[in-house]
Specification:
The chain has eight helices and five strands, in the order ααβαβαβααααββ. The protein is of the alpha/beta class. The protein is globular, with a radius of gyration of 17 Å. The two termini are 26 Å apart. The chain binds zinc ion. Zinc ion binds next to α5.
Length: 205
């Protein structure tokens, strides 16, 4: 499948989103085009990068964004941290992506079965204290977790929590003045959940 060229020098947010979706579909069909080693591409990229999307994803080994979206070198600017949480360093990386790389599309990519979210649920439900630095991560997730029906199955509770955590990260980005400015300038902030058993990326509305 070929993609049309972006309408302007900087790809539009919607164009980037369609490109990610198409890449995930190729991945699902077993028709991924990347990774490939193309010396010309590498030589081009040695001169600079112009990724079309920024992804804030989880460190989980089962959720590698380039593979899931069948993207090439230089196409995605990726920040990965357990639980796709927001921290000053993560914000700094996102700010760099917006201000210097000018990616028009930002995706917060959570995933089913996220251990960091599960740890946060354990603290919320049982008051469980994790090891100090893990607890720091968990503390970043807790404010975004809603009260979850304890009668629901564990899987259902996790699904609710994972989605809420994605929305929480987006909320924190959009609370910043730069996030608001980016929206005005036409940038898009999209939440998504990777379905770990199927390989499908589900966009949150
Ligand atoms: Zn995770």
């Amino acid at each position: 499948m070929e993609f049309p060229e972006p309408p302007e020098v900087t790809a539009s947010a919607e164009w980037g989103l369609q490109r990610l979706i198409a890449g995930n579909q190729r991945f699902l069909r077993g028709e991924a085009r990347f990774p490939t080693v193309c010396k010309e591409t590498l030589a081009d990229l040695a001169r600079g990068q112009q990724p079309f999307a920024t992804i804030l994803g989880c460190s989980d080994s089962r959720v590698p964004p380039e593979l899931i979206f069948d993207a090439n070198f230089g196409e995605l600017f990726i920040v990965r941290v357990a639980g796709n949480v927001i921290s000053p360093e993560v914000m700094g990386s996102l700010q760099y992506a917006g201000a210097h790389l000018r990616t028009p599309l930002f995706v917060v990519l959570g995933h089913e079965g996220c251990g960091a979210v599960e740890a946060a649920l354990k603290t919320k439900r049982e008051g469980h204290e994790h090891r100090a630095r893990i607890q720091l991560l968990v503390n970043s997730i807790l404010p975004g977790l809603p009260d979850i029906n304890s009668q629901a199955s564990t899987v259902e509770q996790m699904n609710v929590a994972v989605e809420a955590n994605v929305r929480w990260s987006i909320h924190q980005i959009l609370e910043t003045q730069e996030g608001k400015n980016a929206i005005k300038a036409g940038a898009k902030f999209v939440g998504a959940v990777y379905e770990i058993a199927s390989g499908r990326v589900r966009l949150l509305s």
